[in-house]
Amino acid sequence: MTKLTANVIRKMWLDFFRSKNHYELPSVSLIPVDDPSLLWINSGVATLKPYFDGRKTSPAPRLTNSQKSIRTNDIENVGYTARHHTLFEMLGNFSIGDYFKKEAIIYAWEFLTDKKWIGFDSSKLYVTVYKDDQEAYDVWHNVIGLSPDRIIKGGKYTNFWEIGEGPCGPNTEIFYDRGEKYDPEHIGIKLLKEDLENDRYLEVWNIVFSQYNNNGDGTYTDLPRKNIDTGAGLERITSIIQETPTNFETDLFMPIIKATEKLTKGKYHYDETALFTGDSQQIKINTAFKVIADHLRAVTFAIADGAFPGNKDRGYVIRRLIRRASLYGKKIGLEQAFLYQLVQTVITIMSEYYTYLIEKQIIIEQAVLDEENKFLKTLEQGTKLFNEVKTKYGLISKEHAFRLFESYGFPIELIEEEAQEAGIKVDRAGFEELLANAKEISRTNRKDIKAIHLQSNLFTHLDVASVFVGYEQEQVNNVEIVFMFANDKSVSELTNTTGYIILKETPFYAEKGGQAADRGLILKDNNTAYVLDVQQGPNKQHLHYVKVDGTLKMNDLVNVSIDSDRRFYTRKNHSGTHLIHATLREVLGSHVMQTGSYNDDERLRIDITHNKSISSAEIMAVEAAVIKAIHAAIPCEIIYTDMQRALTVHHALAFFTEKYDEEVRIIKFGTYSCELCGGTHVANSQDVEDLLITGIESKGAGTFRIHAITSNKTIASYLNEQFLKEKTDVVNYFEKYNQGKFILVDEQLEEIWDQISNLTVSKENWKLLKQLVNQFKDCFKQWQKKYDNVVIQNFVKQYNMLPLQENNNIKILTHQFSTNVDVNALKVLIDDYKARYSNILIFFVDMNDLKQQKLVIGVGEMIQDKYQAGHIIRQLNPLLDGKGGGNNSVAQSGFKNNTIIAELLSDPLGFLQKHG
Fold first, then answer.
1. How high is the pLDDT of residue 358?
2. Cβ(42)–Cβ(71) under 8 Å?
3. Tens-digit pLDDT profile for residues 588-612
4. In this prediction, what percent of the chain has a pLDDT beyond 90?
5. What angle do CA 520, 525, 531 make, to 5 degrees?
6. What pLDDT does residue 660 have?
7. Do 699 and 746 have their domain in common?
8. Residue burial 544-582, b: 16+ Cβ < 10 Å; e: rest
9. Which of 97, 209, 310, 434 could form an S-S bond across to 402 if both were Cys, CB 3.0 to 4.6 Å?
């Protein structure tokens, strides 16, 4: 068997299936699009779900790919086992209603055993099948020629694929026997028959025969269209071909390990029996190298695809991987930031296929370095906590272990190692319980989202022809209704109801690529259908969701027209999205990636990845540059070509979170912007007229959403609305000032008010208005503070000579105020009296607002050994139906029951003695 490189194996896979008429799909971004059920793309089939359930039509019935994927559900195993990884490549071949079991098995066997391809010794291959899948068994036995002792029947746990309700089916797996040296106990085929964890029989291929719908109630029905989903792990196949003990000694990982060795004195050591070595210290060293190599691969790809370290979701995963790798670096003597230095090695290994990594190198290195430096500071705090817990408690409780894990990034295995060295125990079982609870909460938060939809018989067979003519026409007459359905069933007519209509030709744009759907009318005589939404069907038919007044029938000839105003302004916003995207890459850097967008007739928004905050100056620069491009009057050129020419000749931007047909459409504004796009656009950049960025928000680690509007009309309307809103807000503040300026005048506040009042509506003045409004509010706060002080001082002057009583050398002051008084004013007044009388006991009551009756008590310093304000309030609260508290000097209560107030104020000491 020739020892092929991983790059050659990947290419060989794609070449083989292309030779079998499979359409090659690119490896898409790790960040899922329009799939909230997934945090990451976690398998080769994850991106193809709409094809499998019939929502979309595949670009071809036969597909192949090599899809990068991330799984983090068992991250703690990485480095400790031979084949656990966070990032891996899944080689796939798929059939969407085309070939089925026989062909899928024949293809697998040919690729693995034919000398032209992998050329495995066929005597080393074993297979498993589902126990009730006689068809698959017969293919293996009668067609391939495997003897029964090499075909193992498994149950539902091992050989039936399902994830709840939806498509499912039996599967067959192919295993490679690596020989007795990986079976030290000589257990043999029993390892496979009983599904025991082992390193001898390695799974190299898994074919899922998707032939049933799981109905969710324990029953299964045949799918209207049967599919094939094949997965083969590139890392695992490479390990077998290169004859390495684990995946980590292959050319996918070993260069990273070698580069890490150059940074430290530690050395990675292995031989053919490295899995079974008894050298515990070398195992720890090897584990550290494995964790670093694995995690850095995942981090490199994730950041390249736009996921930056952060506190939640994907950002948190990236942060955790970097921190975990950094901690293991410390185990081999790497005390300072080092991971960023290894990014180039990862890119060198992977960039032959993933060419885009090269241009992302600098941004990846910087993001990793920044996170490493942050972690080194956090690590000091975590180590301090560990030492405090170790010293104080003599053990690591489940709560402390989980806090070290969750907040400081300490893997549980490292916590246990540190604890073992310190001679203390860790509540590992309790930690696992807390971790399981946390994972369950995370799963529960997403449990209502289906991973894959039920396959619809209507959609899988929906092959009626429909042509979109909306690029050229906004109205079509005498067009035939070719299909109608409602509630997932075809119908012959729609009467005074809602449903879906497919037209032979349609000018209505279906929502896709970020552009909102058209709306409009479908008319026949006096019957009207209002088109409320348009979505693309499985064979690119446009599905018009309509509300019918009257009756429309199959084969009716109708007149249809879109809302031209809506399309007119949507075009401006869509072209504005392209211009602003190009400018963002120019101003912020070419690493900026668009991860989503939306544009309709009112607004546009664009989501981008960027590794640092975006300043006001940068936003202003982006806006100015877009306006300059608009005024440059750049013609919009529309080009149809194939993907290869689009990328290499025209240098068009393509977002590999999306699927593209063999023929692609390019929207090009000169040298300024060039993107693949199926949307509607203006003929010239000057038709956009104007652009105004209305806001920017952070959507998580390294992801930002920018909001903007275009066209003179929309911007003028928006500015009028914003001016009215801002000025109305300021008026409310100024009215409060007018009510209080007889006490305190603020000339600066009045000057800013005059400037705001005299501003006319314009883009330039809008920015000035926002600045002036902020200045006005800041100035108002300062005035309010000064005003409150003056009011309180006047209040104190008014009430600082209230009559005092004396009892046993204690001065007693009681007063019920006749007007509503601020509690802070009462406290200042109490402080004034206490400053003059250290032996005073004060009771102030305000009952002018029955919803906010209040009692405030003050006690002079000299008598606080006998009377404490907080204690008195707690005594009185049950009698007053009150809530509150305080300290020895002052306390307050908000109360509901005022029946005892008169008695309290008439003789406070007697009352307290009576009820104390």
1. 92
2. yes
3. 988 888 888 999 999 999 998 888 8
4. 64
5. 20
6. 64
7. no
8. bbbebeebbeeebebebbbbeebbebbbbbbbbbbbbbb
9. 434
Query: Could you report the per-residue pLDDT of 117-152, keeping only the tens digit for each?
Result: 999 999 999 999 999 999 999 999 999 999 999 999
Question: String of b and e for 63-80 (b: at least 16 CB within 10 Å)?
Answer: bbbbbbbbbbeebbebbe
Q: For 317-356, what is each residue's pLDDT tens digit?
A: 898 899 889 989 988 999 899 999 999 999 999 999 999 8
Spatial distance between the Cα atoms of 32 and 65, rounded to a whole number of angstroms:
16
Q: pLDDT tens digits for 769-804?
A: 999 999 999 999 999 999 999 999 999 999 999 999
What pLDDT is attached to residue 309? 86
Residue from 117, 227, 109 nearest 161 by CA: 227
- N-term to C-term CA, the chain: 95
Task: State the CATH number of the domain containing residue 480.
Answer: 2.40.30.130
Q: What is the pLDDT of residues 882-916, one digit of tens each?
A: 999 999 999 999 999 999 999 999 999 999 988 86
Both tokens of 440, joined, read 């369950």
Farthest CA pair distance, the chain: 112
pLDDT at 840: 96
Q: Is 205 in contact with 156 (CB distance < 8 Å)?
A: no
Query: Cα–Cα distance between 879 and 915 in angstroms, integer?
Result: 9
Beta bridge partners of 501: 484, 544
Domain span including residue 168? 6-241
Average pLDDT over residues 206-216: 88
Q: Which residues of 803-828 are buried (b: 16+ CB within 10 A; e: fewer)?
A: eeeeeeebbbbbbebeeebeeebbbe
Q: Are 288 and 231 in the same domain?
A: no
Domain-embedded: residue 498? yes
Q: φ, ψ for residue 301 (rounded to 5)?
A: -70, -40
Residue the block writes with tokens 């017969």:
138
Q: Would you place residue 90 in the very low, low, confident or very high pLDDT band (cuts 50, 70, 90)?
A: very high
Distance (Å, whole) CA 655 – CA 677: 10
The pTM of the full predicted model, rounded to 2 decimals, is 0.72
Give the residue-averaged pLDDT of 830-853: 94
Q: At what angle do helices 398-408 and 412-422 cross, to 10 degrees?
A: 130
Distance CA 611, CA 477 (A): 51
Q: How far apart are CA 197 and CA 82, in angstroms?
A: 11
CA distance 641 to 662: 8
Task: Supply 78's token pair.
Answer: 């990485």
The phi and psi torsions of 73 (rounded to 5 degrees) equal -70, -25
Structural domain ending residue among the three candidates 354, 378, 393: 393
Do 782 and 832 lie in a common domain? no
- Residue 451: the pLDDT is 43
411 is a domain residue: no
What is the residue-wise DSSP string for 276-342?
A: G---HHHHHHHHHHHHHHHHHHHHHHHHHTT----SSHHHHHHHHHHHHHHHHHHHTT--S--GGGG
Residue type, 726: E
**What's the per-residue H, E or C state across 115-184?**
CCCCCCCHHHEEEEEECCCHHHHHHHHHHHCCCHHHEEEECHHHHEECCCCEEEEEEEEEEEECCHHHCC
Is 597 a member of any domain?
yes
> What average pLDDT score do residues 267-271 get?
82
Amino acid letter for position 345: T
- Alpha-carbon span 534 to 537, nearest angstrom: 9
Q: Which residues contact 272 (CB under 8 A, 6 or more apart)?
A: 181, 245
Q: Is the same domain home to 545 and 585?
A: no
Which amino acid type is present at position 842?
A: I
* Confidence check: pLDDT of 540 > 60: yes
Q: In angstroms, rounded to a whole number, what is the distance separating the alpha carbons of residues 214 and 373?
A: 49
Instruction: Please choose, from the candidates 423, 443, 383, 570, the residue with its C-alpha nearest in 3D space to the C-alpha of residue 164.
Output: 443
